[in-house]
Amino acid sequence: MFGKRRPRKTSIAGSLIIFAAISWIVGLLFFVAAIPDKVTDDGSKSEAIVVLTGGSMRLETGLDLLSKGAADKLFVSGVHRGVDVAELLRVSRQSPGKLDCCIALGYEASDTHGNAVETANWVRENGFKKVRLVTASYHMPRSLLELRHVMPELEVQPHPVFPDHVKTDSWYRWPGTAALLVGEYLKLLLMPMRWLWIDLVG
Fold first, then answer.
1. pLDDT, tens digit, 9 for 90 and up, residues 102-154
2. Element (H, E) at 156
3. Is there a domain that residue 75 lies in?
4. For residues 90 and 188, is the Cβ–Cβ distance under 8 A?
5. 131 with 48: CB under 8 angstroms?
6. Is residue 97 part of a domain?
7. Looking at residue 143, which CATH number applies to its domain?
8. What is the pTM of this model?
């Protein structure tokens, strides 16, 4: 009697594992498809530009947008302590005296959720309603969700950058890119639980 039930239980467990694996893969494919492959709006003006540090081309793109008048203010979130505006401008090969009056730095964020909280605080302090968000294309979906979670009323214009080392076309053929995207997807899946935990602990 017991010997006959074991295959059925094993079959159910196996089916659940297969279903979960297929769902995970399908979700990953949808996530990759949602990664922007171009800047959809690089002409309209925002009240501020927000740059999330942590990857190549982000700060340079933000400074270039500021110099072209895409916004009057630039906020850089997640800056290492001890780094000031002049240092950032020198590293980015910008004139220290040209843009430093229009740049604010945030030193508190150490991850994407921290970026969102730090950005929301700065945006509220300045009374802004519309910002242009600059971060890597693969990082954009999670960054938008985090920012909209902490400040749903804010209008956010995505401005992705495209690092050369991230090969989103045929990404599965590039082990480095595949690992990066899978890691980003896993972080995205864990976000609701993290939000719940943060809400519970205050």
1. 899 999 999 999 999 999 999 999 999 999 999 999 999 999 999 999 999 99
2. strand 155-161
3. yes
4. no
5. yes
6. yes
7. 3.40.50.620
8. 0.86
